[in-house]
Known about the structure:
- By secondary structure, this protein is of the alpha/beta class.
- 42% of the residues lie in helices and 15% in strands.
- It has helices at residues 13-18, 27-36, 50-61, 98-116, 126-141, 154-158, 163-182, 227-233, 235-244, 249-260, 276-285, 299-307, 314-317, 323-327, 337-342, 365-380, 391-399, 403-416, 423-441, 477-486, and strands at residues 39-43, 85-89, 145-150, 187-194, 211-212, 225-226, 273-274, 319-322, 347-352, 357-361, 446-449, 458-461, 465-473, 499-508, 513-519.
- It has a 5-stranded parallel sheet.
- Helix 5 (126-141) packs parallel to helix 7 and helix 16 (365-380) packs antiparallel against helix 19 (423-441).
- 38% of the residues are buried.
Amino acid sequence: MSERKLPIGIQTxxxxxxxxxxxxxxxxxxEKLVKVxxxxxLSRPRRFGKSLFLSTLRSYFEGRKDLFEGLxxxxxxxxxxxxxxxxxxFNVGDFSTxxxxxxxxxxxLDVYEKIYGIRNENAKSPADRFxxxxxxxxxxxxxxxxxxxDEYDKPLLNAVGDEAxxxxxxxxxxxxYGVLKGEDxxxxxxxxxxxxxxxxxxxxxxxxxxxxxxxxxxxxxICGITQEELEADFVPEIEAMSExxxxxxxxxxxxxxxxxxxxxxxxxxxxxxxxxxxxxxxxFNKSFGSYWFSTGTPTFLTKMxxxxxxxxxxxxxxxxxxxxxxxxxxxxxTEPVPLxxxxxxxxxxxxxxxxxxxxxxxxxxxxxxxxxxxxxxxYAGFPTDDKKIEIxxxxxxxxxxxxxxxxxxxxxxxxxxxxxxxxxxxELNCQAFVWLIFKLMGEFVLCEVQNxxxxxxxxxxxxxxxxxxEFKMDGSAKxxxxxxxxxxxxxxxxxxxxxxxxxxxxxxxxxxxxxxxxIV
Length: 520
Protein backbone atom coordinates (compact mmCIF):
# COMPACT_ATOMS: atom_id res chain seq x y z
CA MET A 1 0.00 0.00 0.00
CA SER A 2 1.31 3.44 -0.93
CA GLU A 3 1.95 5.93 1.86
CA ARG A 4 -0.87 8.32 2.61
CA LYS A 5 -0.47 12.06 2.12
CA LEU A 6 0.34 13.88 5.35
CA PRO A 7 -0.75 17.56 5.36
CA ILE A 8 2.57 19.16 6.32
CA GLY A 9 2.29 22.90 5.74
CA ILE A 10 -1.24 22.55 4.30
CA GLN A 11 -3.53 25.01 6.04
CA THR A 12 -6.21 25.35 3.36
CA UNK A 13 -9.24 23.08 3.76
CA UNK A 14 -9.99 23.19 0.04
CA UNK A 15 -6.51 22.00 -0.99
CA UNK A 16 -6.46 19.36 1.73
CA UNK A 17 -9.77 17.84 0.58
CA UNK A 18 -9.27 18.15 -3.16
CA UNK A 19 -5.78 16.61 -3.09
CA UNK A 20 -6.71 13.78 -0.73
CA UNK A 21 -4.57 14.64 2.27
CA UNK A 22 -5.34 13.02 5.63
CA UNK A 23 -7.99 15.08 7.41
CA UNK A 24 -9.14 14.73 11.02
CA UNK A 25 -12.83 15.58 10.91
CA UNK A 26 -13.52 18.68 13.03
CA UNK A 27 -16.70 19.69 11.22
CA UNK A 28 -18.95 18.77 14.17
CA UNK A 29 -17.48 21.84 15.88
CA UNK A 30 -18.46 23.99 12.88
CA GLU A 31 -22.06 22.85 13.20
CA LYS A 32 -22.11 23.49 16.95
CA LEU A 33 -20.66 27.00 16.59
CA VAL A 34 -23.08 28.03 13.87
CA LYS A 35 -26.10 26.78 15.80
CA VAL A 36 -25.38 28.29 19.21
CA UNK A 37 -23.89 31.70 18.55
CA UNK A 38 -22.43 34.35 16.31
CA UNK A 39 -19.25 36.20 17.48
CA UNK A 40 -16.38 33.98 18.69
CA UNK A 41 -12.78 34.23 19.77
CA LEU A 42 -10.34 31.29 20.00
CA SER A 43 -6.83 31.33 21.45
CA ARG A 44 -4.44 28.48 20.67
CA PRO A 45 -0.64 28.20 20.34
CA ARG A 46 0.92 28.62 16.91
CA ARG A 47 0.94 25.61 14.59
CA PHE A 48 -2.05 24.09 16.37
CA GLY A 49 -4.51 24.08 13.48
CA LYS A 50 -6.23 27.45 13.92
CA SER A 51 -5.69 28.40 10.28
CA LEU A 52 -7.02 25.09 9.01
CA PHE A 53 -10.14 25.36 11.16
CA LEU A 54 -10.72 28.92 9.97
CA SER A 55 -10.30 27.75 6.38
CA THR A 56 -12.87 25.02 7.08
CA LEU A 57 -15.31 27.70 8.25
CA ARG A 58 -14.60 29.68 5.10
CA SER A 59 -15.42 26.73 2.83
CA TYR A 60 -18.57 26.02 4.81
CA PHE A 61 -19.91 29.58 4.57
CA GLU A 62 -18.98 29.74 0.88
CA GLY A 63 -21.37 26.81 0.39
CA ARG A 64 -18.71 24.34 -0.82
CA LYS A 65 -20.84 21.25 -0.26
CA ASP A 66 -18.54 19.13 -2.45
CA LEU A 67 -15.65 19.54 -0.01
CA PHE A 68 -17.64 18.17 2.94
CA GLU A 69 -18.82 14.90 1.43
CA GLY A 70 -18.35 12.05 3.89
CA LEU A 71 -17.73 14.39 6.84
CA UNK A 72 -19.83 14.74 9.97
CA UNK A 73 -21.50 18.02 9.05
CA UNK A 74 -22.75 16.62 5.73
CA UNK A 75 -25.17 14.41 7.66
CA UNK A 76 -27.22 17.36 8.88
CA UNK A 77 -26.51 20.40 6.70
CA UNK A 78 -29.03 20.88 3.88
CA UNK A 79 -28.96 24.56 2.83
CA UNK A 80 -25.30 25.25 1.95
CA UNK A 81 -25.83 28.99 1.41
CA UNK A 82 -23.09 31.05 -0.19
CA UNK A 83 -22.47 33.95 2.19
CA UNK A 84 -20.13 36.87 1.49
CA UNK A 85 -16.99 35.90 3.42
CA UNK A 86 -14.32 38.36 4.55
CA UNK A 87 -11.15 36.46 5.43
CA UNK A 88 -8.27 38.42 7.00
CA UNK A 89 -5.05 36.45 7.42
CA PHE A 90 -2.52 38.34 9.55
CA ASN A 91 0.03 35.57 9.11
CA VAL A 92 0.76 37.42 5.88
CA GLY A 93 1.87 41.04 5.70
CA ASP A 94 4.60 43.52 6.60
CA PHE A 95 4.18 44.86 10.14
CA SER A 96 7.56 46.54 10.57
CA THR A 97 6.25 50.11 10.49
CA UNK A 98 2.94 51.93 10.73
CA UNK A 99 2.92 52.74 7.01
CA UNK A 100 3.68 49.14 6.04
CA UNK A 101 0.96 47.88 8.37
CA UNK A 102 -1.60 50.32 6.95
CA UNK A 103 -0.57 49.34 3.43
CA UNK A 104 -0.92 45.64 4.26
CA UNK A 105 -4.40 46.21 5.68
CA UNK A 106 -5.33 48.33 2.67
CA UNK A 107 -4.33 45.57 0.26
CA UNK A 108 -6.57 43.13 2.11
CA LEU A 109 -9.51 45.52 1.75
CA ASP A 110 -8.72 46.17 -1.92
CA VAL A 111 -9.51 42.53 -2.71
CA TYR A 112 -13.06 42.81 -1.39
CA GLU A 113 -13.70 46.27 -2.84
CA LYS A 114 -13.12 44.76 -6.28
CA ILE A 115 -15.86 42.25 -5.51
CA TYR A 116 -18.46 44.38 -3.73
CA GLY A 117 -17.53 47.92 -4.75
CA ILE A 118 -16.99 51.02 -2.62
CA ARG A 119 -20.20 52.37 -1.10
CA ASN A 120 -18.79 55.71 0.03
CA GLU A 121 -15.84 57.44 -1.63
CA ASN A 122 -15.26 59.43 1.58
CA ALA A 123 -14.35 56.23 3.41
CA LYS A 124 -10.57 56.55 3.72
CA SER A 125 -9.59 54.82 6.95
CA PRO A 126 -9.44 50.99 7.14
CA ALA A 127 -12.35 51.04 9.60
CA ASP A 128 -14.57 53.20 7.36
CA ARG A 129 -13.75 51.12 4.30
CA PHE A 130 -14.51 47.91 6.18
CA UNK A 131 -17.82 49.30 7.41
CA UNK A 132 -18.88 50.23 3.87
CA UNK A 133 -17.86 46.81 2.56
CA UNK A 134 -20.02 44.95 5.07
CA UNK A 135 -23.04 47.06 4.17
CA UNK A 136 -22.41 46.73 0.44
CA UNK A 137 -21.90 42.95 0.62
CA UNK A 138 -25.21 42.51 2.46
CA UNK A 139 -27.03 44.71 -0.02
CA UNK A 140 -25.47 43.05 -3.08
CA UNK A 141 -25.96 39.41 -2.03
CA UNK A 142 -29.01 39.64 0.21
CA UNK A 143 -27.10 37.68 2.86
CA UNK A 144 -25.30 38.92 5.94
CA UNK A 145 -21.50 38.79 5.85
CA UNK A 146 -19.15 36.37 7.58
CA UNK A 147 -15.89 37.74 9.03
CA UNK A 148 -12.98 35.41 9.75
CA UNK A 149 -9.73 36.77 11.22
CA ASP A 150 -6.64 34.57 11.51
CA GLU A 151 -3.88 35.49 14.01
CA TYR A 152 -5.32 38.91 14.86
CA ASP A 153 -2.43 39.55 17.29
CA LYS A 154 0.48 38.88 14.89
CA PRO A 155 1.16 42.60 14.20
CA LEU A 156 1.20 43.34 17.94
CA LEU A 157 3.49 40.44 18.85
CA ASN A 158 5.87 41.41 16.04
CA ALA A 159 6.11 44.90 17.51
CA VAL A 160 6.78 43.85 21.13
CA GLY A 161 9.69 45.90 22.44
CA ASP A 162 8.61 49.02 20.55
CA GLU A 163 5.92 50.50 22.80
CA ALA A 164 5.10 53.35 20.44
CA UNK A 165 4.54 50.97 17.52
CA UNK A 166 2.48 48.59 19.65
CA UNK A 167 0.29 51.49 20.73
CA UNK A 168 -0.14 52.63 17.13
CA UNK A 169 -1.12 49.16 15.94
CA UNK A 170 -3.49 48.79 18.90
CA UNK A 171 -5.33 51.99 17.99
CA UNK A 172 -5.68 51.00 14.33
CA UNK A 173 -6.96 47.54 15.17
CA UNK A 174 -9.28 48.82 17.89
CA UNK A 175 -11.21 50.99 15.44
CA UNK A 176 -11.05 48.28 12.75
CA TYR A 177 -12.55 45.56 14.94
CA GLY A 178 -14.97 48.06 16.47
CA VAL A 179 -16.75 48.03 13.12
CA LEU A 180 -17.94 44.49 13.85
CA LYS A 181 -20.17 45.72 16.65
CA GLY A 182 -21.43 48.78 14.82
CA GLU A 183 -22.36 46.76 11.73
CA ASP A 184 -23.93 43.85 13.62
CA UNK A 185 -27.08 43.98 11.49
CA UNK A 186 -24.98 43.11 8.43
CA UNK A 187 -23.13 40.18 10.05
CA UNK A 188 -24.05 36.49 10.10
CA UNK A 189 -20.97 35.10 11.87
CA UNK A 190 -17.62 36.24 13.33
CA UNK A 191 -14.65 34.07 14.27
CA UNK A 192 -11.33 35.55 15.40
CA UNK A 193 -8.22 33.55 16.29
CA UNK A 194 -4.91 34.42 17.89
CA UNK A 195 -2.22 33.20 20.23
CA UNK A 196 -2.76 35.71 23.02
CA UNK A 197 -6.07 36.38 24.70
CA UNK A 198 -7.33 39.88 24.10
CA UNK A 199 -7.02 42.64 26.66
CA UNK A 200 -10.67 43.63 27.10
CA UNK A 201 -9.92 47.29 27.80
CA UNK A 202 -7.85 47.65 24.67
CA UNK A 203 -8.30 46.23 21.17
CA UNK A 204 -11.70 44.62 21.69
CA UNK A 205 -13.16 47.12 24.15
CA UNK A 206 -15.81 48.11 21.59
CA UNK A 207 -16.42 44.49 20.61
CA UNK A 208 -17.31 43.30 24.10
CA UNK A 209 -19.84 40.71 22.94
CA UNK A 210 -17.24 38.23 21.66
CA UNK A 211 -17.71 34.73 23.03
CA UNK A 212 -14.26 33.50 24.11
CA UNK A 213 -14.33 29.71 23.71
CA UNK A 214 -10.61 29.26 24.39
CA UNK A 215 -11.20 27.51 27.73
CA UNK A 216 -14.66 26.11 27.01
CA UNK A 217 -14.57 22.37 27.70
CA UNK A 218 -16.94 21.63 24.80
CA UNK A 219 -14.38 23.07 22.38
CA UNK A 220 -11.17 21.84 24.01
CA UNK A 221 -10.50 19.50 21.04
CA ILE A 222 -11.42 21.99 18.30
CA CYS A 223 -7.72 22.14 17.34
CA GLY A 224 -5.07 19.49 17.83
CA ILE A 225 -5.45 15.71 17.87
CA THR A 226 -6.98 13.63 20.65
CA GLN A 227 -5.84 10.18 21.74
CA GLU A 228 -8.91 8.65 20.13
CA GLU A 229 -8.27 10.46 16.84
CA LEU A 230 -4.63 9.39 16.88
CA GLU A 231 -5.37 5.71 17.37
CA ALA A 232 -8.32 5.64 14.95
CA ASP A 233 -7.03 7.79 12.07
CA PHE A 234 -3.26 7.16 11.99
CA VAL A 235 -3.00 3.38 12.20
CA PRO A 236 -0.82 2.98 9.03
CA GLU A 237 1.52 5.77 10.16
CA ILE A 238 1.91 4.31 13.66
CA GLU A 239 2.67 0.88 12.24
CA ALA A 240 5.21 2.29 9.77
CA MET A 241 6.92 4.34 12.47
CA SER A 242 7.06 1.35 14.82
CA GLU A 243 8.66 -0.81 12.14
CA UNK A 244 11.18 1.84 11.13
CA UNK A 245 12.27 2.40 14.75
CA UNK A 246 12.24 -1.33 15.56
CA UNK A 247 9.79 -0.94 18.44
CA UNK A 248 6.33 -2.30 19.16
CA UNK A 249 3.16 -0.36 18.40
CA UNK A 250 2.58 0.10 22.12
CA UNK A 251 6.09 1.50 22.56
CA UNK A 252 5.57 3.84 19.61
CA UNK A 253 2.32 5.16 21.07
CA UNK A 254 4.00 5.68 24.45
CA UNK A 255 6.85 7.62 22.86
CA UNK A 256 4.44 9.78 20.83
CA UNK A 257 2.51 10.55 24.02
CA UNK A 258 5.68 11.37 25.96
CA UNK A 259 6.89 13.81 23.31
CA UNK A 260 3.81 15.46 21.80
CA UNK A 261 0.77 14.90 24.06
CA UNK A 262 -0.22 16.53 27.34
CA UNK A 263 -2.06 19.70 26.32
CA UNK A 264 -5.29 20.68 28.08
CA UNK A 265 -7.28 23.80 27.19
CA UNK A 266 -9.96 23.59 29.87
CA UNK A 267 -10.59 22.03 33.27
CA UNK A 268 -11.53 18.86 31.37
CA UNK A 269 -8.30 16.94 31.96
CA UNK A 270 -9.72 13.77 30.42
CA UNK A 271 -9.19 15.15 26.92
CA UNK A 272 -5.47 15.11 26.17
CA UNK A 273 -4.48 17.03 23.05
CA UNK A 274 -1.47 16.21 20.87
CA UNK A 275 0.42 18.93 19.05
CA UNK A 276 -0.72 18.27 15.44
CA UNK A 277 2.29 19.91 13.78
CA UNK A 278 4.80 17.79 15.70
CA UNK A 279 2.78 14.60 15.37
CA UNK A 280 2.42 14.84 11.60
CA UNK A 281 6.10 15.74 11.15
CA UNK A 282 7.10 12.81 13.35
CA UNK A 283 5.07 10.46 11.13
CA PHE A 284 6.56 11.95 7.96
CA ASN A 285 10.14 11.64 9.23
CA LYS A 286 9.48 8.43 11.21
CA SER A 287 11.51 10.06 13.95
CA PHE A 288 10.72 11.36 17.45
CA GLY A 289 12.32 14.74 16.82
CA SER A 290 11.66 18.28 17.96
CA TYR A 291 9.50 19.99 15.34
CA TRP A 292 7.10 22.53 16.83
CA PHE A 293 9.66 24.45 18.88
CA SER A 294 12.04 24.84 15.96
CA THR A 295 9.43 26.83 14.02
CA GLY A 296 10.28 29.89 16.08
CA THR A 297 10.30 31.01 19.70
CA PRO A 298 9.51 34.63 20.68
CA THR A 299 12.83 36.10 21.81
CA PHE A 300 11.04 38.62 24.00
CA LEU A 301 9.44 35.77 25.96
CA THR A 302 12.68 34.08 26.99
CA LYS A 303 14.25 37.48 27.66
CA MET A 304 11.32 38.34 29.92
CA UNK A 305 11.99 35.18 31.93
CA UNK A 306 15.57 36.28 32.53
CA UNK A 307 14.77 39.92 33.25
CA UNK A 308 12.39 39.15 36.11
CA UNK A 309 14.48 36.31 37.56
CA UNK A 310 11.77 33.79 36.71
CA UNK A 311 11.84 30.66 38.90
CA UNK A 312 12.70 28.16 36.19
CA UNK A 313 12.26 25.18 38.55
CA UNK A 314 8.51 25.80 38.64
CA UNK A 315 8.19 24.93 34.95
CA UNK A 316 8.06 21.24 35.86
CA UNK A 317 6.80 21.48 39.43
CA UNK A 318 3.76 23.46 38.34
CA UNK A 319 2.54 27.02 38.86
CA UNK A 320 -0.76 27.73 40.58
CA UNK A 321 -2.85 30.41 38.88
CA UNK A 322 -6.47 31.52 38.63
CA UNK A 323 -8.48 31.58 35.42
CA UNK A 324 -8.02 35.31 35.01
CA UNK A 325 -4.24 34.88 34.93
CA UNK A 326 -4.62 32.52 31.99
CA UNK A 327 -7.17 34.51 30.05
CA UNK A 328 -5.67 38.00 30.12
CA UNK A 329 -2.43 39.29 28.76
CA UNK A 330 -1.31 42.87 28.37
CA UNK A 331 1.45 43.59 25.90
CA UNK A 332 3.27 45.82 28.35
CA UNK A 333 3.15 43.19 31.13
CA THR A 334 6.34 41.85 32.72
CA GLU A 335 4.82 38.60 33.97
CA PRO A 336 5.57 35.77 31.50
CA VAL A 337 3.24 33.08 32.93
CA PRO A 338 0.06 34.03 30.98
CA LEU A 339 2.02 34.23 27.73
CA UNK A 340 3.89 30.99 28.45
CA UNK A 341 0.48 29.31 28.74
CA UNK A 342 -1.10 30.99 25.72
CA UNK A 343 1.89 30.29 23.47
CA UNK A 344 1.92 26.59 24.40
CA UNK A 345 5.03 26.32 26.59
CA UNK A 346 2.88 25.60 29.64
CA UNK A 347 -0.48 23.88 29.83
CA UNK A 348 -3.14 22.97 32.39
CA UNK A 349 -2.17 19.93 34.46
CA UNK A 350 -4.66 20.17 37.32
CA UNK A 351 -7.86 22.02 38.24
CA UNK A 352 -9.24 22.57 41.74
CA UNK A 353 -12.94 23.17 41.36
CA UNK A 354 -13.43 24.47 44.91
CA UNK A 355 -10.95 27.31 44.43
CA UNK A 356 -11.35 27.63 40.65
CA UNK A 357 -7.59 27.47 40.38
CA UNK A 358 -5.32 25.80 37.86
CA UNK A 359 -1.88 24.25 38.01
CA UNK A 360 0.07 24.75 34.81
CA UNK A 361 3.35 23.10 33.81
CA UNK A 362 5.35 21.96 30.79
CA UNK A 363 3.15 19.78 28.53
CA UNK A 364 5.64 17.21 27.23
CA UNK A 365 9.25 16.24 26.58
CA UNK A 366 9.52 18.05 23.24
CA UNK A 367 8.63 21.40 24.78
CA UNK A 368 10.65 20.80 27.95
CA UNK A 369 13.98 20.00 26.36
CA UNK A 370 13.55 22.51 23.53
CA UNK A 371 12.79 25.34 25.95
CA UNK A 372 15.74 24.41 28.16
CA UNK A 373 18.04 24.40 25.13
CA UNK A 374 16.78 27.86 24.27
CA UNK A 375 17.37 29.15 27.81
CA UNK A 376 20.78 27.55 28.39
CA UNK A 377 22.95 30.00 26.37
CA UNK A 378 20.88 32.94 27.61
CA TYR A 379 21.64 32.15 31.25
CA ALA A 380 25.32 31.79 30.34
CA GLY A 381 25.20 35.26 28.79
CA PHE A 382 25.57 34.26 25.15
CA PRO A 383 23.40 35.37 22.21
CA THR A 384 20.42 33.13 21.49
CA ASP A 385 22.08 31.66 18.39
CA ASP A 386 25.37 30.80 20.10
CA LYS A 387 26.68 27.34 19.18
CA LYS A 388 29.43 27.02 21.80
CA ILE A 389 27.29 25.05 24.24
CA GLU A 390 26.65 21.48 23.14
CA ILE A 391 25.02 19.36 25.81
CA UNK A 392 26.28 16.18 24.12
CA UNK A 393 29.84 17.17 25.08
CA UNK A 394 28.87 17.27 28.75
CA UNK A 395 27.09 13.94 28.41
CA UNK A 396 30.05 12.19 26.75
CA UNK A 397 32.41 13.35 29.49
CA UNK A 398 30.15 12.06 32.25
CA UNK A 399 29.67 8.76 30.46
CA UNK A 400 33.43 8.40 30.12
CA UNK A 401 33.89 9.16 33.81
CA UNK A 402 35.71 12.40 32.99
CA UNK A 403 34.25 14.50 35.80
CA UNK A 404 37.32 16.77 35.82
CA UNK A 405 36.77 17.61 32.16
CA UNK A 406 33.04 18.06 32.82
CA UNK A 407 33.70 20.70 35.51
CA UNK A 408 36.41 22.40 33.45
CA UNK A 409 34.05 22.67 30.49
CA UNK A 410 31.55 24.54 32.65
CA UNK A 411 34.31 26.88 33.80
CA UNK A 412 35.43 27.58 30.22
CA UNK A 413 31.89 28.62 29.34
CA UNK A 414 31.70 30.88 32.40
CA UNK A 415 35.06 32.41 31.46
CA UNK A 416 34.12 33.14 27.85
CA UNK A 417 30.62 34.46 28.49
CA UNK A 418 29.95 38.22 28.70
CA UNK A 419 29.79 39.36 32.32
CA UNK A 420 26.73 41.39 33.42
CA UNK A 421 27.22 44.29 35.79
CA UNK A 422 24.59 43.00 38.20
CA UNK A 423 26.54 40.57 40.40
CA UNK A 424 23.51 39.06 42.13
CA UNK A 425 21.78 38.42 38.82
CA UNK A 426 24.95 36.86 37.46
CA GLU A 427 25.11 34.43 40.38
CA LEU A 428 21.48 33.45 39.88
CA ASN A 429 22.11 32.95 36.16
CA CYS A 430 25.08 30.69 36.89
CA GLN A 431 22.95 28.57 39.19
CA ALA A 432 20.30 28.31 36.49
CA PHE A 433 22.92 27.42 33.89
CA VAL A 434 24.22 24.46 35.91
CA TRP A 435 20.64 23.36 36.68
CA LEU A 436 19.78 23.42 32.98
CA ILE A 437 22.84 21.36 32.02
CA PHE A 438 21.66 18.53 34.22
CA LYS A 439 18.06 18.86 33.05
CA LEU A 440 19.18 18.65 29.43
CA MET A 441 21.36 15.66 30.14
CA GLY A 442 18.14 14.04 31.32
CA GLU A 443 17.06 13.86 27.67
CA PHE A 444 19.63 11.09 27.20
CA VAL A 445 20.19 9.57 30.64
CA LEU A 446 18.30 9.23 33.88
CA CYS A 447 19.03 12.52 35.60
CA GLU A 448 17.37 14.07 38.63
CA VAL A 449 17.92 17.70 39.57
CA GLN A 450 16.84 18.73 43.03
CA ASN A 451 15.90 22.19 44.23
CA UNK A 452 17.76 22.64 47.50
CA UNK A 453 15.13 20.96 49.68
CA UNK A 454 17.38 18.65 51.67
CA UNK A 455 18.40 16.40 48.79
CA UNK A 456 21.47 16.39 46.55
CA UNK A 457 21.60 19.00 43.81
CA UNK A 458 21.89 16.46 41.00
CA UNK A 459 22.02 12.71 40.49
CA UNK A 460 23.01 11.11 37.18
CA UNK A 461 22.39 7.42 36.55
CA UNK A 462 24.72 5.76 34.04
CA UNK A 463 25.08 2.12 33.04
CA UNK A 464 27.77 1.30 35.60
CA UNK A 465 27.87 4.33 37.87
CA UNK A 466 25.70 6.80 39.76
CA UNK A 467 27.01 10.37 40.14
CA UNK A 468 25.87 12.47 43.10
CA UNK A 469 26.59 16.21 42.80
CA GLU A 470 26.42 18.88 45.49
CA PHE A 471 27.30 22.54 44.81
CA LYS A 472 28.15 25.35 47.20
CA MET A 473 28.23 29.08 46.54
CA ASP A 474 31.20 30.83 48.21
CA GLY A 475 31.77 27.88 50.51
CA SER A 476 34.12 24.98 49.91
CA ALA A 477 34.19 21.72 48.04
CA LYS A 478 34.88 20.01 51.34
CA UNK A 479 31.63 21.40 52.78
CA UNK A 480 29.73 20.22 49.72
CA UNK A 481 31.15 16.71 50.02
CA UNK A 482 30.50 16.67 53.76
CA UNK A 483 26.84 17.46 53.08
CA UNK A 484 26.57 14.45 50.75
CA UNK A 485 28.01 12.26 53.51
CA UNK A 486 26.33 13.76 56.56
CA UNK A 487 22.89 13.62 54.96
CA UNK A 488 23.65 10.19 53.51
CA UNK A 489 22.41 11.02 50.02
CA UNK A 490 23.90 7.75 48.75
CA UNK A 491 21.71 5.54 50.95
CA UNK A 492 18.91 5.58 48.40
CA UNK A 493 21.20 3.76 45.96
CA UNK A 494 22.98 1.30 48.26
CA UNK A 495 21.15 -1.72 46.81
CA UNK A 496 21.46 -0.55 43.19
CA UNK A 497 24.73 -2.38 42.54
CA UNK A 498 26.35 0.42 40.56
CA UNK A 499 29.47 2.27 41.64
CA UNK A 500 28.70 5.58 43.38
CA UNK A 501 30.76 8.70 42.66
CA UNK A 502 30.34 11.77 44.87
CA UNK A 503 31.26 15.25 43.60
CA UNK A 504 31.39 18.23 45.94
CA UNK A 505 32.07 21.55 44.21
CA UNK A 506 32.34 25.21 45.18
CA UNK A 507 31.46 28.18 43.01
CA UNK A 508 33.15 31.49 43.75
CA UNK A 509 31.06 34.55 42.99
CA UNK A 510 34.21 36.70 43.12
CA UNK A 511 36.08 34.61 40.53
CA UNK A 512 32.88 33.70 38.68
CA UNK A 513 33.73 30.04 38.25
CA UNK A 514 34.04 26.76 40.09
CA UNK A 515 37.27 27.15 42.05
CA UNK A 516 37.48 23.67 43.50
CA UNK A 517 35.84 20.28 43.46
CA UNK A 518 36.44 16.96 45.13
CA ILE A 519 35.63 13.63 43.49
CA VAL A 520 35.25 10.56 45.67
